[in-house]
Amino acid sequence: MLPLEEKQKYPMAPGTVQGYGQAFVFSEDQKLDWCNMFALGIEPQYVRNPNLWPKKPEKFSETVEEYSGEIRKLCYNLLTYIALGLGLKGDEFEEMFGVSVQAVRMNYYPPCSRPDLVLGLSPHSDGSALTVLQQAKGGPVGLQILKDNTWVPIQPIPNALVINIGDTIEVLTNGKYRSVEHRAVAHEEKARLSIVTFFAPSYEVELGPMPEFVDENHPCKYKIYNHGEYSKHYVTNKLQGKKTLEFAKIQTKNTN
Ligand SMILES: O=C(O)CCC(=O)C(=O)O
Ligand SMILES: [Fe+2]
């Protein structure tokens, strides 16, 4: 592992999500997650901050480029099959998304002597369309998803990626496919590393439920909004379950 002073050459500035540090921290009183992150914007080029690309290890940048190129192809393939599975044209999402925004985040969860007192990463859904999550070999179970109000641990499968549906797909399908609420827990003795790719529409894209998923039995749940604004809202708020998705919800009158 790189020494701290090397990592600190690439700091995540307050209110930003790229570089080394802790994201989603908004107050002195906030209980911090037991996790160090290193995050980079990958595509399109304008989301990159070259000053944050580490010079060490020597092959880091080349490896990230190669890995991200392959994951990008995978995401486009997944979106094709998801579209076909939903009865849409295979290239529906690709066309709608424009030049998709891709970012990578490496989450390092050190061992914690009192894992019962902390969370590795607070509950949230991802603000992406799809998330591709890779877990380092030999690490402990850390990822959990919320299913029927119960946190279910996701056993890492060797050489397998975990694919999560993000908020964009939930909105586009008017809730037919829901973004998964998840969190990470720390382990008493073992460190854990996850490498997570977020794949999302271009920031200019206006999103809302597709007409195919709205009818009298399925009223429109989300408004039309700009994805760039949603992303901004997402990264400037605390991780708190699926709360950020409320940004996109059509407010129904409270009839109580
Ligand atoms: O480490 C994990 O398994 C979860 C990471 C995650 O949810 C994220 O980075 O958004
Ligand atoms: Fe996540």
From TrEMBL:
InterPro entries the record matches: DIOX_N, IPNS-like_FE2OG_OXY, IPNS-like_sf, Oxoglu/Fe-dep_dioxygenase_dom, Plant_2OG-oxidoreductases
Domain Fe2OG dioxygenase: 100-201
Protein's name in the database: Fe2OG dioxygenase domain-containing protein
UniProt cross-references to SUPFAM superfamilies, sorted A to Z: Clavaminate synthase-like (SSF51197)
Keywords: Iron, Metal-binding, Oxidoreductase, Vitamin C
Gene: LOC100820290
One example GO MF annotation: L-ascorbic acid binding
Signal peptide, first to last residue: none
The family this protein is said to belong to: Belongs to the iron/ascorbate-dependent oxidoreductase family.
Pfam families, per the entry: 2OG-FeII_Oxy, DIOX_N
